Amino acid sequence: MTLEWRHSLEGLDWDELSRLYQAAPLGNKQPDGLKLVFGNSMFKCLVFDEGRLVGAGRAMADGLDCSYICDVAVHPSHQGTGLGKQIVSRLVELSRGHRKIILYAVVGKESFYEKFGFRRMKTAMAIFENQAQAFERGLIE
């Protein structure tokens, strides 16, 4: 398996990226919304296997103070291969130099991110578009 890594959005099929998030499964992220959020992100990782998009992630960063890693997705055909670890690792490396690198994990996956040096924050707060759903998923108290 020879993977092709891209850090540019040039030529990206936004519908294919949307399908990746659905397959991963990380929700129903519409192509137009993905184009907006990836376009506004300083760092992007897109991974292709024989021309097919199999992994993605991004980090919104300001260049100095904060980088927020989000939307890391791996196609089920490539889950368990270490690809997710490689994507997070690259985004952490791209984010080096920022005073803090932040992410929030899916409940139960915290130990995966601890391997990269992430630690729980005691003062993190959030307002979600759907507060009730975030509560049900265990993201907020």
TrEMBL record:
GO molecular function, one term: N-acetyltransferase activity
Signal peptide start-end: none
PROSITE patterns: GNAT
CDD domains: NAT_SF
Gene3D superfamilies hit by this protein: 3.40.630.30
Record InterPro entries: Acyl_CoA_acyltransferase (IPR016181), GNAT_dom (IPR000182), NSI-like (IPR045039)
Keyword Transferase (UniProt): yes
Top-level taxon of origin: Bacteria
A single cellular component GO annotation: cytoplasm
PANTHER family per UniProt: ACYL-COA N-ACYLTRANSFERASE, GCN5-RELATED N-ACETYLTRANSFERASE 2, CHLOROPLASTIC
Protein name: N-acetylglutamate synthase
